[in-house]
Amino acid sequence: MNQLFVIDGVSVRRDLDGRYCLNDLHRAAVASGANERTKEPGKFLSSPQTIELVQELETTQILGSNPVESFGGRNGGTYVCKELVYAYAMWISPKFNLTVIRTFDAVVTQQANSRLTDQVQAGAILLESMARTLNLSNSSKLGGYQKLQKLAGLPDLSPSYAIDAPAGAVDGSSRSTQSLSAILKQNNIRMSANQVYQQLAKLGVVEQKERNSRTGANGVKKFWSLTAKGCMFGKNITSPANPRETQPHFFDSKAAELLRLLETVH
Questions:
Q1: What DSSP state is assigned to residue 171?
Q2: 121 in helix, strand or coil?
Q3: 162 and which of 72, 99, 109, 139 could share a cystine (Cβ 3.0–4.6 Å)?
Q4: CA proximity to 175, closest of 148, 149, 137
């Protein structure tokens, strides 16, 4: 049993199937000033209209449990589904019915806000973890934060862009980047990108990472990612092929230095 909500100081319990205690609702009605001590749950459940409603619930709804169930013991009482809660509240009085409806709405709103807060917090933790693990560029991290900001419904307070530049850049401007294939073609180097990545891995500039994939060999897909050292020469962007992969992009201003570094690999 657990508490769902409180009406005028009376906690309304729920059973393990999510039904609500009608006895608690009756106590809440009395406490709210409805002065309906005679409108007990048993009388409500035995009325022809309620009997018809219960029959309709049993035949038209897939509840997974009976719409009405009585228990003895410490947490004893009669527990009913939400539809019968509303019907009972209206049977008590229109005023009490509104009180119950508004209380339900407040609880649902609170739960939704709590779930959203948990989602945003989890998203922020995951983004920070991914940023460290994958050495994401500033612009990639900013894109993630902007999405979290939108999800949370917060004002647009983040900057519209982030600076992606090599360490030591002093002018505060982002540097243009290219894929490794484009740099190799531009410099007439007759090696495949994968061959060069293998060489760069020996230098600690890139590393190969894995993710689960139904189409990959043995259920695993491999992709390249710049290391912390490699971020001197470029940045990790989200792969156009799959948002769960990174793709290294290299600063044009560092391309010549990167190619000279390749000549040192043995």
A1: S
A2: helix
A3: 139
A4: 137
Distance CA 43, CA 22 (A): 12
What pLDDT, in 10s, does the model give residues 160-210? 545 565 655 544 456 788 899 999 999 998 889 999 999 999 999 999 988
Cα 208 to Cα 161: distance, rounded to the nearest angstrom: 28
Closest to 108 in 3D by CA, of 82, 84, 134: 82
DSSP assigned state of 205: S
| Domain residue extents for the chain | 2-108, 177-262
How far is 166 from 254, CA to CA, in rounded Å?
Answer: 8
What is the biggest distance separating any 2 CA atoms in the chain, rounded to whole angstroms? 93
The sign one gets for the Cα dihedral 95, 98, 104, 108 is: negative
What is this structure's pTM? 0.46
Token pair belonging to 1: 């049993």
Nearest residue to 169 via CA among 197, 138, 206? 138
Give the residue from 134, 258, 254 showing the smallest Cα distance to 197: 258
pLDDT (tens digit per residue) in 60-103: 776 567 899 888 777 678 999 989 999 999 999 888 889 888 88
Does residue 45 contact residue 144 with C-beta atoms inside 8 Å? no
Angle, CA 9 vertex, CA 6 and CA 14 arms, to 5° = 35
Instruction: Give dist(CA 7, CA 138) in Å, integer.
Output: 50
Question: Which residue type does 102 have?
Answer: R
C-alpha distances (whole Å) from 108 to each of 91, 104, 114, 117, 124 are 23, 6, 10, 14, 24
Contact 247, 223 (CB under 8 A): yes
Tokens of 171: 């002018």
